[in-house]
Design goal:
Residues 1-22 form the signal peptide. InterPro entries: DUF4528. This is Chromosome 15 open reading frame 61. Keywords: Signal. It is a single chain. This protein has 152 residues and is an alpha+beta fold. The chain has one domain. The protein has helices at residues 2-15, 27-37, 96-108, 112-124, and strands at residues 43-49, 62-67, 70-79, 82-89, 127-133, 136-142. A hairpin with a 2-residue loop joins strand 3 (70-79) and strand 4 (82-89). The protein is globular and about 35 Å long.
């Protein structure tokens, strides 16, 4: 898995023509800070540019994420030029089988649908938000405006 991660990181740098900030926050820090800034919402869905974060959650597609005592089920996928997150507050569950299934699907289809999703997202982004991290501000992107406090 480590070799695949190094290959992926090299491909991202190549595709970004070397335009990757040297001091970038972890994607996990952006995730946690976004959830905190939103007051631990019931759900949220956003994209963050690969070039803005260090992809420390590589290989994770569906997993639990604990922030300040609130557990979230995270659906995550790389959809170049973004990493897409869908977060739903829920009780912790064993998501290992789901994670393996989603990862296998992405490998089997060679990532083509996720690439198309990323390109499409680029055209439909309508809202941005700034997340404050230990490495400075990071812009995240939304395909639509989220209603604060909405359950769904």
């Amino acid at each position: 898995m480590q070799a695949v991660r190094r290959l992926h990181d090299a491909a991202v740098v190549l595709l970004l023509c070397g335009r990757v900030r040297s001091a970038r926050p972890d994607a996990s820090e952006v995730l946690s800070q976004h959830l905190r800034q939103r007051g631990l919402p019931h759900w949220t869905s956003y994209c963050v540019k690969y070039s803005a974060v260090r992809n420390d959650q590589f290989g994770l597609s569906n997993f639990n994420w604990l922030v300040d005592g609130a557990n979230y089920h995270i659906l995550r996928t790389g959809c170049f030029p973004f990493v897409k997150y869908h977060c739903s507050r829920a009780a912790p569950q064993d998501l290992a089988l789901h994670n393996a299934a989603f990862t296998a699907l992405k490998v089997l289809n060679a990532g083509i649908p996720t690439l198309l999703y990323g390109i499409g997202s680029w055209f439909f982004v309508s809202v941005t938000e700034t997340v404050h991290t230990s490495h400075g501000p990071v812009t995240i992107y939304f395909l639509n405006k989220e209603d604060e406090g909405a359950m769904y």
